[in-house]
Protein 1
Amino acid sequence: MTDRNIPVTEDELHAYVDNELPAERCGDVEAWLAAHPDDAARVQSWRAMAEALHARYDSVIDETVPKRLEIERLVQQPRKWVYGAVAATLAAFIVGGGTGWFARGAATAPSAFQNLTVHAIEAHRLYVVEVRHPVEVPGSERSHLQQWLTKRCGWVVRAPELTGAGLKLVGGRLLPGSAGPASFMMYESASGERFTIYTAKSDAEATQMRYAAEGKESTLFWADDGVVYAVVSTGVDRGRLTQIAQAVYDQMEKKG
Amino acid sequence: MSAFRQSVEAMIPALRRYARALARDADIADDLVQDTLVRALRSERLFLGGDVRSWLYTILTNLNKNRRRSLARRPQFMPLLDNNPDASGTEAEGRDIARALATLVEEQRSVLLLVMLEGLSYREVADIQGVPIGTVMSRLARARAHVKASLEGERTALRRVK
């Protein structure tokens, strides 16, 4: 038997409420509470707090689990799943003309990405109009650019080779993102159309490719290996943006 | 479906509840759950037995910590007035508890929810957060004191208005 004269500590009160107290001490605590109304009131308030938490959040348990959280959907080899989703996205983009499908895609884009795509589009707008100083490091110094951005960003930044798509690397720069540094690279075609690739740290490990548009700018973006990539263009040419995004995606995929 | 997958699936409703209370925003909460599941399923072969439940809570807690870190420097937007005088007692109470939770620092909110809402033991929470049991207990005590003060503060403020 424990001595009733040993004062009950605050830790013991918490342990009592949480059923963590050794059974032989519970009687002592109950006797203590009967004699100490302040402590009894505190214990009561913690119980009420637990009830309030359950009253507020237990309803989530009964909600239908959203489709995107179904195990069957998630188990198809995550990487292939992402790649398959990208292919499906691109096909829908080209074949379906996109509108309806993408209206849905944009609406379901996780909120965490909203800021990021806004940043990518803003950076694109700000710098594509620059004639003299569009970038900090010119495309002629490709390897230096890659090393520098990789070092400053903390993930591997590669300037993909897009000559196959008729694009030449103009260069790149380091940008402040919402959660640390972001890399920004600009490409240009012979006719002067400019595409930019923005990368930043992502909360999501890997996601499907998604589409977002604001004004004249549109972007295809996805996360891979904890980094989000956004390919941005001005003036919607779906086939073209898709072609570039696909090329960028393929090269990032090989990198790993 | 493998036993592993079944035990992961059985945890989805509870993970959603924990994430909802942790992140407040329903979409963000489900993003967290989705990332947790993807990670868990990807590591199926690496999982050598043990408690799937604790492991899932651990992944979700860590993902949320990373998310919070990346949000840390962004200004927080809080509604100036969201008191709905017509709200029923329970609704108003739910809003109060949600608001009180929002004022807690991350580790304290996580401890409070894991113990009080999810019913985990101090030992399990210590493993999830990677800290000694004593730290869990002091975080819990501080969280409870803070939430209690926050709830009482609101009530006092309301009384003063009346």
Protein 2
Amino acid sequence: MIGFPQSISGRVYAAILLILAPAPFIFEWINQPFYLDLLSRALILAIAVISLNLILGFGGMISLGHAAYIGIGAYSVGIPAYYDYYNGWLHLALALAVSASFALITGAISLRTKGVYFIMITMAFSQMVYFTFLSLEEYGADDGLVIYSRSEFPQWMTMDGGTSLYYWIFALLLLSLFFTYRLVYSRFGRVIVGAKFNEQRMQALGFNTYRYRLVCYVISAMICSLAGVLLGNFTGFISPDMIGWARSGELIFMVIIGGAGTFFGPLVGTIAFVLLEEFLSLITVYWHLIFGLMLVALVLYGKGGIHGWLSRLDRN
Amino acid sequence: MTEPLLKIHDLNKHFGGIVATDHVNLEVEKGLIHAIIGPNGAGKTTLIAQLSGQIKPDSGDIEFGGHSITGYSVAHRARAGLARSFQITSVVMPMTLLQNVMLAVQGGSGHSFHFWTPVSEDAEMQAAAMASLAEVGLEDRAERIAANVSHGEQRQLEVAMALAMKPRMLLLDEPMAGMGKEEGAMMVEILNRLRGDMTILLVEHDMDAVFSLADKLSVLVNGHIIATDTVENIRSNHEVQKAYLGDGHA
């Protein structure tokens, strides 16, 4: 694993990580603080996309409700903050516990279905979360909730300030990448990947595929909730708008753009998505049209997403 | 006569008006190769599906190693030691042969809720998988992708995976299906080597293979077992000849 990467894709990913590591100082140096905001948002989403890729790309479980876990994470910061509880550990623990419980219950039901039914039922559960937060007048309902201060941590790991928060995001991003990598190559990961390709065979080998998938779904939801905690702290304002199913759809697109079932695909896919969205909207107000057409072209011709494209360069 | 490893008691299965399994009683003794033959549509596949747990019988009981497994799921039966191969090749196509067999080793060795250690660093598991590949003569194909090897080799992989689970009994559903003469002969040789160490229930179309392999034969016609006997006796059984082998066969 360690060593200078030989493949083109490996070099590109190494270069991206090497640029991301000192990014705040680069942006400060060229005096463009706005880009730090943009990049922070992209990397937060990347963590969510990495978590979705774990079940979608590696496990073949296409969830159209993953934004719910971003919402659960964000409200785990917002609601305690509303009562003046700013302890960061409390926020993290709450996000992980609630997302795990919700994923366990909804996953236990959803994973009894396959294919398009799984897509629909995960979407239905996420809409349930959406409408729940939409109806909670106490916490702002559709007006949202302002978080006046970031989660509090010991001084050396504070989230206060753009650069500090960026390194929180970057650290959690690296952790989720590394965790996914270990998981996929472990015994557990082999079962998940095997069940994606041939569930009948995996059952005949003695694996209760349902149970393994459920655990995988819960792990994915917990990672996704971390992205929610970061997003709540980053925007300082949360609303049900971040949970809607269209949000979940965007997450799926980011997985596909980067390359489903690859380790760095979600990261490059998310960065590409966020940057394209940003710069197209600067050029023209009709950017949605261009963006949509590009996505269609990508799905039609870009087999394997950016990762697929990079690894084809390797083979030539 | 040793105690039978698998006992089927009065198994019945209907699909609407069609009787697929009709009061089937069968005992498979430990260490024997027991073959089930029968014309197309006799209900061989339905019977195998009930044994492996994919289809629930309407009535009757399946006993394995002294326990009723009728209520067990597919995965539970596999963990209980009843391993199967599929008539239509069913392996994880994008993985290598070694990875496929390692999955089978994993399946036969406790739960797989291990989240951290890479499988590739597990030398013990790798050695066990290589041993199973060697048993079917695929050791030099270990690193090939399953989708890229020949049909015959995929069939051998099926058997290697079943063996790698360290099962108490193999359920082989037409292991020679779609094989050429040479490949078929190779499979006969592989199964012959397992004789005595492994209990095998074999469903097979290839009569030459069945006659050279089986210690015991059961003949299934219209969902019902009309005879269970040694190969010689079945060959000379007039009823079997009429129902299955055709009048010209002797």
